[in-house]
Amino acid sequence: MKYSTDYTPIEMMIVAGSRQIQNEQILMVGTQWPIITTLFAKKTHAPDVTICYEGGGVLESIPDRIPLFTGDPCIASHSVFLNDSLDTLGMILHRGYPDIAFLPAANVDRYGNVNTTCFGEYSKPKFRLGGSGGACDFGSLAKRVITMLEHERQRFPEKVDFITTPGHLSGSGSRQEAGLRAGTGPDAVITTLGIFKFDDQTKEMYVDAYYPETSIEEVKKGFQWDIKVSKNVTMAEPPTEEEIRTLREAIDPFGMYLRGNKAKSVSTY
Amino acid sequence: MKNKKASMEEAVKEFVADGDTVYLGGFIQHEPYAAVHEIIRQKRRGLTVSKCAGMIALDKLIGAGCVDKIISTYIWNPLPKPAHALRRCIEKGIPHEIRMEEYSILSLSLSYFAGALDLPFIATKTLMGSDLMRHSSFFDENKFRIIESPFNGEKVCLLPPLKHDVGIIQVQRADREGNAQAWGLMGDSKYGINSCSKVIICAEEIVDTEVIKRDPSRTIIPGFKVHAVVEEPWGGHPSYVSGYYDIDWRYFSFYEKATETLDGFENYLDEWVYGVRDRSEYLEKIGKKNLDELKPKPWKSDPIDYGFCGKHQEEYVR
Questions:
Q1: A135 forms bridges with which residues in the sheet?
Q2: A135 in B contact zone (CB under 8 Å)
């Protein structure tokens, strides 16, 4: 096993995310980075994970083309179960089956609350985003929520403008006060800079690990508040050459995620 | 059996009125784009549109000025790129201000389920703590209630039933009476379409009732609830219908670029909606080559056997 010396921050994030997964786990999977991360885990160390999507699909195998979102038509020809949102978000998620729920996010705050609704005042926003989709259900109901996003300072305000997806709300005890079940909520935030976890008592986010190409100081600058650093902070294990090869050649050979091909724009039809 | 076949123009004229609460079915696939274009062409106004996972169908209706109120969980171009008409509307009030009632997919699906059954309310553990509950607009205090469960005292969120004046969905096939069959990713569609007082079924194909009867478990709404059946091949383009066509990413990308500015959006409508008479003219513009490219290779189910039980056991026959 040789560690790779040629990988991007996005690839490091995907590998770090996949390492949170154990074989045979049930995963509730949101769109964007969670899709490629969970399929990569399935291709490597966790071949028997079950992947559930909000629209009603359950996958036990890797589709021939990588889904570009959780509603991608390729899911229809590769699922073992394909029905309603009430099945996956209801009879699977609400019933408590998933071991982990993976979410994308626009903004994440100090307590792991996620905003995908708007920037600025809700009634008159500066920038209107898409909205919850199933994200709020993931955050409300899942035992262990892992959020994945590219690390930019403006994405990490101390308090989000709008709580689309409840994290630990205002800290210790506040989820249960709001009515959410005990033993649910954010477990980690994984970005292009590092891995962030939540204090058992205060439920505040802290730096758990930083990536080899960065430093604790650089990671801390990525937050709009003075984020705490774990006493046991570590440097994350870099990806292996084999992992990077699998990711590029077997999971995303056309670079739909890794090289952003899906954002290609055309101006005529 | 009633023959409810209608053209898209007739169905929208007869069953979608100004001010109606309209459910748009389809979860990524099954979105009724052809019907949406016809609603825009007929200049419906003051609609309340309910759409669980809204891609650009809702964006078009908002930009075209058909909508006053929205019930939804998500409106975005799946590229992913912004839904520009939605942004212009919410951020700048163009073409006019609208009000929005927002949910998560599970809570909205449950509300449709409650509407379809006419339950007084439905209880859930999702949504609590989220700002989706702090901001209620036209439902005011009737959006939800948090109570202590009478059974075990835990906090639960109660959601009232959601019902709609009219519902529209693009399905794989239906018969002339409206027995509608859909398969693949279903999302909220089954409970949503069954929560509507009037129903317009748009189908890739109209088939004989005998075809429906050989696989009745695939029917998502029985014909007696349906008011009009429109045969509209490719009516879900640029999204997909499993077994008929793949998603047209190029068109989503083109739409995103084309509608980035208000002028661009209006030009888009002039060319692709007002500028064509119906879906067949729209498809001519798409072109046969592009349509052919979107046709998937077959991925057929093995035939299943329902078993034909036509005789009683002898000792039970008098």
A1: none
A2: yes
Q: What percent of chain B is modeled with pLDDT above 70?
A: 100
* Closest listed residue to residue B26, CA positions, set B97, B78, B62, B68: B78
Tokens of residue B275, six digits: 């500028």
Positions of chain B with pLDDT under 50: none
Mutation site for B-interface testing, chosen from A32, A137, A180 by largest number of B Cβ within 10 Å: A137
Q: Is B242 on the interface with A (CB under 8 A)?
A: yes
CB atoms within 10 A of CB B163: 18
Tell me whether residues B27 and A136 touch, CB distance under 8 A: no
Burial class (CB in 10 A: 0-12, 13-18, 19+), A183: exposed
Angstrom distance (rounded) from CA B67 to CA A179:
34
Per-residue pLDDT tens digits for A185-202: 999 999 999 999 999 999
Question: Given the structure tokens 């699909």, which residue do they identify?
Answer: A57
Between chains, do B83 and A135 touch, taking CB under 8 Å as contact? Answer: no
The answer to whether residue A54 is catalytic is yes
CB B260 within 8 A of CB B83: no
The string of pLDDT tens digits covering residues B299-308 is 999 999 999 9
In percent, the amount of chain A with pLDDT more than 90 equals 95
Q: Which helix (H) or strand (E) holds B82?
A: none
Q: In the block, which residue shows the tokens 């969970």?
A: A38
Asked if B50 is an interface residue toward chain A (Cβ–Cβ < 8 A), one would say no
| Spatial separation of the C-alpha atoms in residues A131 and A106, rounded to whole Å | 10
CA–CA separation, A201 and A172 (whole Å): 6
Q: How many angstroms separate the CA of residue B318 from the nearest CA in chain A? A: 43
Confidence (pTM): 0.97
Which tokens go with A213?
């190409």
| Inter-residue contact A52 to A73 (CB < 8 Å) | no
Q: Where are any strands of DSSP class E within B76-195?
A: 99-102, 122-124, 145-148, 155-159, 164-174, 180-181
How close A45 gets to chain B, by Cα (Å)?
Answer: 28
**What is the band of A261 on the pLDDT scale with cuts at 50, 70, 90?**
low
CA B207 to chain centre: 21
Three-state DSSP state, B291: helix
Mean pLDDT, chain A, whole residue set: 96
CA distance A56 to B98: 30
**Which residues in chain B touch residue A262, judged by CB atoms under 8 angstroms apart?**
79, 249
Cβ-defined contact of A68 to B73 (cutoff 8 Å): no
Q: Are B295 and B245 in contact (CB under 8 A)?
A: yes
Q: Which residue has 């994200």 as its token pair?
A: A135
Q: Which of A54, A177, A204, A242 is catalytic?
A: A54
* Element (DSSP H or E) covering residue A219: helix A216-220
A194 membership: H or E segment, kind and range: strand A194-198
